[in-house]
Write a structure and sequence with these properties.
The structure is a single chain. It contains two helices and eight strands. It is α/β, with parallel strands linked by helices. It has one domain: D-tyrosyl-tRNA(Tyr) deacylase (D-tyrosyl-trna(Tyr) Deacylase, Chain: A, 3-Layer(bba) Sandwich). The strands form two sheets. Strands 1, 2, 3, 6, 7 and 8 form a six-stranded mixed sheet that branches. Strands 4-5 form a two-stranded antiparallel ribbon. The chain is globular and about 45 Å long.
């Protein structure tokens, strides 16, 4: 499982001209699943997301968590996180989890993420989503479950 975490001042997801999810201060999460992922990693990943301290404190240091700043999550499915360009210029997605299973995992992950008590907004799995964001900092972190 890979998540690109972007600290944002605001972010939104639009599908077919309608906003499906919108947040102010918080994290835009681009979430991808790999063939051999299991749901067992979700609690550890969520604990890391909730505890991650990349919001600035009163001294300008990245020392506050999303809980400390009353932030929100915007969770977006992103299978292209497992795109490989190692052999040629057209990405290969052979490592990405199959559509139906990835959809199930995304739904389960979002369900578990909502249990954290932090507001969660979402995109629509498999849709042509238009994401708008104002990256704050910019701060962008790559979380790979294989490193936890």
């Amino acid at each position: 499982m890979r998540i690109v975490i972007q600290r944002v001042s605001h972010a939104s997801c639009t599908v077919d001209g309608k906003i499906t999810g919108e947040i102010n201060n918080g994290y835009l999460l681009l979430i991808g699943f790999k063939n051999d992922d299991t749901c067992d990693i979700f609690p550890k990943v969520i604990k890391k997301l909730v505890g991650l301290r990349v919001f600035e404190d009163e001294n300008g240091k990245m020392n506050k968590s999303i809980l400390d700043v009353n932030g929100s999550f915007l969770a977006i499915s992103q299978f292209t996180l497992y795109g490989s360009i190692a052999h040629g210029n057209r990405p290969s997605f052979t490592e990405a989890l199959a559509f139906d299973q990835a959809n199930l995992y995304y739904e389960l992950f979002v369900k578990e993420l909502k249990k954290s008590g932090i507001p969660v907004e979402c995109g629509i799995f498999g849709a042509d989503m238009k994401i708008e964001l104002l990256n704050d900092g910019p701060v962008t972190i790559l979380l790979d479950s294989e490193e936890l």
